[in-house]
Amino acid sequence: MLVYIIRRLVTVVVMLLVVTLATFGVFFMVPKLTGTDPALMYVGKNSDKASVEGTRKKLGLDEPVLVQYGEFVKGLATGRDYDDGVEVTHCPAPCFGYSFKTEQEVWPILKDRLPVTASLASGAAALWLVGGVGVGIVSALKRGTIWDRAAMVGALAGVSLPIYFTGLLSLSIFSYQLGWTSAEYVPFMDDPGGWFTNLMLPWITLAFLYAAMYARLTRATMLEVMGEDYIRTARAKGLKESTVVRKHALRSTMTPILTIFGLDLGALVGGAVLTEKTYNLRGLGYEAVNAIQNKDLPVILGVTLVAAFFVVIANLVVDLLYAVIDPRVRLS
């Protein structure tokens, strides 16, 4: 087990390095190929040539690409010093650089936005996992009944309706007309009750989409598992139907559910763009959209790497949980 964990951690580090290399290349090499100067994007189009050259030197944009990448990775691990010839500015680790528009360090901006996205993702994930899997299991066990058909129609509606439609509709009814809740984010430590109440609409809106997909996947997987030989053997031994479903069918059904759950949750922590924009929640997704509009490359790069980090970590956790959920899986 320990050897497996160490091997997977090494794989995670290598994967993150590959992601940083690819992302860095996209954000800092492609603009040069298209004739766009990152230094000019930082100081503005109306700046003089001396300012542009000074910024290029300070940010290390005059160095070879591999040197720039090495300095970037070093900055993530140990921090980085920016020297413009007059003063030295230290950017503590993890250093993603400075925003082109606000000239602020990128990491404090991301750290300020992360609790909003983490709150949104965690609450919605709990709702869609419990609701979607539960509906899918009941639908599979009651195949062909009115419940099954109604559940699948609801799941189809959840998959088909976009978040910005259900989000704006829920805001119009429950927030603006009925006044039951507000769309303003409240930090958990400041007001736990307000944090929970104000996030209910975003949670339900986001969970509705994912729960529909999980319900359909759970139903299809459950129906397939219930037809396996070992399920018929368990029934032939005289086990109760609840025991057969809980100890045999459900554990096998959860393997693909766990796989996509890790990917979905990791991606959401990286930024639930549509939900955050719809409810004006200033999380990572909201920040990413603004950075794209402003062509703020360091912020976009930072959000991308944070999202990649959570996706990779989520996959690592999923791999470790496989052996716990499915006894057929062995860590080797």
Describe this structure in words.
The structure is a single chain. This protein is an all-alpha fold and about 325 residues long. The protein has two domains: about 1-90, no CATH class; about 105-325, MetI-like fold. It has 14 helices and two strands. The chain is globular and about 80 Å long.
- Rounded to an integer in angstroms, the radius of gyration calculated over CA atoms is 24 Å
Our measurement of the CA-to-CA distance between the termini, rounded to an integer number of angstroms, reads 8 Å
Task: Give the percentage of residues in beta strands.
Answer: under 5%
Largest sheet: 2 strands, antiparallel
Count up the helices.
14
CATH architecture of the largest domain: Orthogonal Bundle
Structural class: mainly alpha
Parts with pLDDT < 50 across at least 5 consecutive residues: none
Secondary structure layout plus pairing:
Elements: H1 2-28, H2 30-33, H3 38-43, H4 49-58, H5 65-78, E1 80-83, E2 88-91, H6 106-141, H7 146-160, H8 163-177, H9 192-226, H10 229-236, H11 241-269, H12 273-279, H13 284-294, H14 297-325
Antiparallel strand pairs: 1-2
Helix pairs in contact: 1-14, 6-7, 6-9, 6-11, 6-14, 7-9, 8-9, 8-12, 9-11, 10-11, 11-14, 12-13, 13-14
